[in-house]
UniProtKB/TrEMBL annotation:
Name this protein carries in UniProt: Membrane protein
Domain of life, source organism: Bacteria
Keywords of this entry: Membrane, Transmembrane, Transmembrane helix
InterPro entries, alphabetized: DUF5009
TM helices/strands, residue ranges: 12-30, 50-67, 87-104, 116-138, 145-164, 202-221, 233-253, 265-284, 304-323, 343-363
Lineage, highest ranks first: Bacteria, Pseudomonadati, Bacteroidota, Chitinophagia, Chitinophagales
The keyword Membrane is assigned to this record: yes
Pfam families listed in its UniProt record: DUF5009 (PF16401)
Species in which this protein is naturally found: Chitinophaga cymbidii
Coiled-coil features, chain-numbered ranges: none
DUF5009 domain mapped to chain residues: 41-92
Length: 373
């Protein structure tokens, strides 16, 4: 393989992750979702709980290519690039949460959505912070130093939760991150889907999530440096297996948990991502089995833009009212549910939106439109 050639498997991995993010975020009805497509209620890890950490892992993979340019830039230019990208992604996340900036009131009139209850954190906001912190660690400490720093973050997070979390430090209400988010963000600007103000993309739990980015960078960096080595794939599989085992072992004392993003969860998800990527490298790069890869390449070429558009589409549905029902609910209850039933209809509703967003990505690829933040 040419030394400057990108690994198609990395692009397919990223695209697969984006497609899965759209699928799990757009069921026809949250009442009818098969268990593998639901998040674990608290401790544990479902297939859906792998999607977000896989995306962060893919962000790290992409950084292993993009940050090569940093060596030709001044320190001020590097910092400007990192902080600009971090700020833009964070701002896009906030605006997406606020979009479409209007809502229907009780009288059925469109009114301006006040920022008084605007959620500050979210998926894109966490991606932004993890990218920014991860990029700074890698830039200043280099890959090996960033790896050590990641270990410190994971152990430090565990220590902080254990020391300041009271009698049940890994519970919803005992998690010290909850108090930090309330103090800094304020309850009005937090997620309320758990029955109380709780931020699953909280400030403190963002620190171990940085590990998914740094370790993703490390895997991408390792693959590039060892692309000609006959033992590269074997070493990658060994690393992934060790990380999964370490995550499971650590999970006995520090349960695997997405909502507070435990350190064991970071190791476990990075391990599975590494194993999945190893399989893709074997089939796509070594065996040249590339049938069907273009479907996921389309998502991987404009990942952030397509993810943002998936949120825009769903939120625009809320402005279209048909017989006292928004278009999202109407489309499910009048098309997918009657034809396919509750659960299958809900699942195919999500598949429909994956395909809808794929068509957008396909059109952009045909037009050579690639939006980078």
């Amino acid at each position: 393989m040419n030394q400057n050639q990108r690994f198609l498997s990395l692009d397919v991995f990223r695209g697969l992750t984006v497609a899965c993010m759209i699928l799990v975020n757009t069921p026809g009805s949250w009442r009818y979702v098969w268990e593998p497509l639901q998040h674990a209620k608290w401790d544990g890890c479902t297939p859906t709980d792998l999607v977000f950490p896989f995306f962060l892992f893919a962000v790290g993979n992409a950084m292993s290519f993009a940050m090569k340019k940093f060596s030709t830039m001044s320190n001020a230019e590097v910092l400007g690039k990192i902080f600009k990208r971090t700020a833009l992604i964070f701002l896009i996340g906030i605006l997406l949460g606020w979009f479409p900036f209007v809502k229907y009131d009780e009288a059925g009139e469109l009114v301006f959505k006040s920022p008084a209850n605007l959620r500050i954190m979210g998926v894109l906001q966490r991606i932004a912070l993890c990218y920014g912190i991860g990029a700074l660690l890698i830039h200043y400490l280099k890959p090996k130093g960033a790896l050590i720093a990641t270990g410190v973050l994971l152990l430090g997070y565990w220590a902080v939760l254990w020391a300041f979390g009271g009698s049940d430090p890994y519970s919803l209400e005992g998690h010290i991150g909850l108090q930090i988010d309330k103090m800094i963000l304020g309850e009005n600007h937090m997620y309320h889907g758990e029955g109380l103000a709780f931020e699953p993309e909280g400030l403190l739990s963002t620190l171990p999530a940085v590990g998914n980015v740094v370790l993703g960078y490390w895997v991408g960096w390792f693959v590039q440096r060892n692309r000609q080595s006959p033992t590269m794939l074997m070493r990658l599989v060994a690393a992934g297996s060790i990380l999964v085992a370490l995550g499971l072992i650590w999970g006995v004392a520090f349960p695997i948990n997405k909502k507070i993003w435990t350190s064991s969860y970071t190791l476990y998800t990075v391990g599975i991502a590494t194993l999945l990527l190893s399989v893709m490298i074997y089939f796509i790069e070594i065996r040249k089995a590339r049938a069907g890869t273009y479907f996921f390449e389309v998502f991987g070429k404009n990942p952030l833009f397509i993810y943002v558009m998936s949120g825009v589409v769903v939120r625009l549905y809320g402005l279209i009212i048909i017989n006292d029902q928004n278009f999202y609910g109407w489309l499910y209850t009048h098309v997918f549910q009657p034809v396919f039933g509750n659960y299958t209809g809900s699942f195919l509703f999500g598949i429909f939106h994956v395909l809808l967003l794929w068509l957008l990505g396909w059109w952009m690829d045909r037009k050579k439109i690639y939006i980078r933040v």
